[in-house]
Amino acid sequence: MAITNKIENFHMEVNGAFADKAQALTPTLLERTVSPVGTVEITPRGPDYAAAPAERGFDRSLPLGRGGRVCLDFGDHQVGYVSFTLTPVGSPPDAPVFLRLKFGEIPYEIAADLSGYEGEVSRSWIQEELLHIDVVPAVVRLPRRYAFRYLEVTVIDTSPKYKVVLSGVTCTAVTSADRSALTPLKTADPELIQLDRVSLKTMEDCMQTVFEDGPKRDRRLWLGDLRLQAQTNYMTFRNNGLVKRCLYLFAGLTQNEGRVGACLFLEPAPQVDDTALFDYSLFFVSCLHDYYEATGDRETLAELAPTARRQIELALRELDGRGIVADRDTWWCFLDWGDGLNKQAGAQAVLIYALKQAGQLAAWLEDPAWGEQCRGHIDRLTRAAVEHLWDEERGFFVSGAERQVSWASQVWFVLAGVFGRKENVRLLERLMEEDPGVPMVTPYMYHHFIQALMDSGLKERAVEYLKEYWGGMLRDGADTFWELYDPRDRYASPYGSRAVNSFCHAWSSTPAYFIRRYLDS
Ligand code: RAM
Predict the structure, then answer these.
(1) What is the DSSP letter of 7?
(2) Which residues contact 418 (CB under 8 A, 6 or more apart)?
(3) Phi/psi of residue 350, each to 5°?
(4) Residue 418 C-alpha to ligand 1 middle, in angstroms?
(5) Which strands sit side by side in the sheet containing 271-272, from one edge to the other?
(6) Is residue 191 part of a domain?
(7) Cβ neighbours, 10 Å, residue 9
(8) What is the pLDDT of residue 5?
(9) For residues 175 and 204, what is the distance between their CA atoms, to the nearest angstrom?
(10) pLDDT at 147 over 90
(11) What's the CA-to-centroid distance between 3 and ligand 1, angstroms?
């Protein structure tokens, strides 16, 4: 199935006042200059590759000629702009310098031969450059922003008569996250401390002029990602202005009929994409709900509530005669990247979840009529879900014509609170014990599972899974948390190639949220 859900006859609807507000909230990025800590040797290790330190610091006097190669290690994940100096040695340079640069968030991106790349998303996301420098000595400033820890420089050629010395390699790292807003953790649990540290680094590197999903790919604002980033932000960097900016961007630049898009581009000017996702549009309601809960910013609540309300209206149009969200065979709703995951049940649960939050918005706004409407829809959708999607015999919610059982469906119905606490606990325990059907594959979906455990009072199990799943990424060498992690398959990718997976992905940074909200005492 194509990973796109392009809406028909797409056009962008602009609310100029909202777009201006978003613009005025554009943050100034903080800059830091980082130099490599040394060089590394990247070699195969098990099913993957590992980087072993080769040389501390980096020998600036070593001249590189044809075929010369060095892999620099910046010590941690960086997002920023790279520059370096090339100085010729030998005869006067009689030909250009021809370089290949490879940037890698993980060693695999450096070591793998990606010339046969056949992934589904553009190969232009692979961070590789071929560069001619006509005149040396030169200070080379690369115009792109990169996300990486490793930088491999290969001299494809100088000439037989001269070589070059590479020096002054630096990265000007950029972020809108301010570490001075962080409070120290109280817990002494070393695993939690480590999970928190890597979560913060992941968040920091994704916080740019908006909350980006991943600084390598897609480098844009996705609503589903924003929701988790904002929740983590309230417990960590507290850059509430950035959340507000993102909310105004989504509300100011909508698709046809006021539909909030799944994602937005920022350059050359802010622009909503033509992709629509059922759950993501509804998460505008959630983001506004969470934002008001965290900030008490009434003006924003009042201004953006109509946009939230519109998303509910549009979603309700998708119900069939039974009061169940109609299934579709396109990429119409996200939930997770699980192979063959049917979205119908999860979508129904997300709608109930969002309706409850809309009811809360109505209460805050003292709008009893809207509140009453929400309650009516919640009752109808809940009854329909129990009647048509709950399979009493199997003890699970089922989804789609094939009555598929998945982790995503169960988790979302727990979050939607369709059953009471006791039944939710039983459902989650059954799920963990029987491990039925389609599993979870992204930290995004695992986040919702952990939240469901927390909401149901199963804190110890939540901690177990946090340490097992996110801890697994650490054991597998993560500097920042990954977009997708399947402990059974290091090469899993929704895009047909691991090379374009993002290895610093904000939706994976929520251990910091869980630790700071529930576990830090
Ligand atoms: C991926 C993005 C993002 C996610 C969407 C659905 O391409 O990186 O994280 O929200 O898909």
Answers:
(1) P
(2) 349, 352, 382, 385, 386
(3) -60, -40
(4) 27
(5) 221-222, 263-265, 271-272
(6) no
(7) 6
(8) 80
(9) 6
(10) yes
(11) 10
Beta pairing partners, 275: 6
Instruction: Give the start-end residues of each E strand in 160-281.
Output: 162-175, 221-222, 253-254, 263-265, 271-272
Alpha carbon distance 123, 121 (integer Å): 6
Cα of 502 vs centre of ligand 1, distance in Å, is 10
364 burial class (0-12, 13-18, 19+ CB within 10 angstroms)? middle
Query: With contact defined as beta carbons under 8 Å apart, do 275 and 256 qualify?
Result: no
Contacts of 376 (CB under 8 A, 6+ apart): none
The single residue listed with the structure tokens 């969002």 is 354
Q: Is 81 a domain residue?
A: yes
Q: Report the atom number in ligand 1 closest to the C-alpha of 214.
A: 8
User: What CATH number is given to the structural domain containing 118?
Assistant: 2.60.120.260
Which atom of ligand 1 is nearest the CA belonging to 225?
Answer: 10
Residue 272 within any structural domain of the chain: no
> What is the CB neighbour count within 10 angstroms for residue 128?
17
374-426 pLDDT tens trace:
999 999 999 999 999 999 999 999 999 999 999 999 999 999 999 999 999 99
- Are 148 and 77 in contact, with CB atoms under 8 Å apart? yes
Q: Domain containing 138: what range?
A: 30-175
In the chain, the number of structural domains is 1
Is ligand 1 within 6 A of the CB of residue 443?
Answer: no
pTM for this model (two decimals): 0.97
> In angstroms, what is the span from residue 206 Cα to ligand 1's centroid?
13
Is residue 131 one of the residues assigned to a domain? yes
Residues 49-97: tens digit of each pLDDT: 999 988 777 766 789 999 999 999 999 999 999 999 999 999 999 999 9
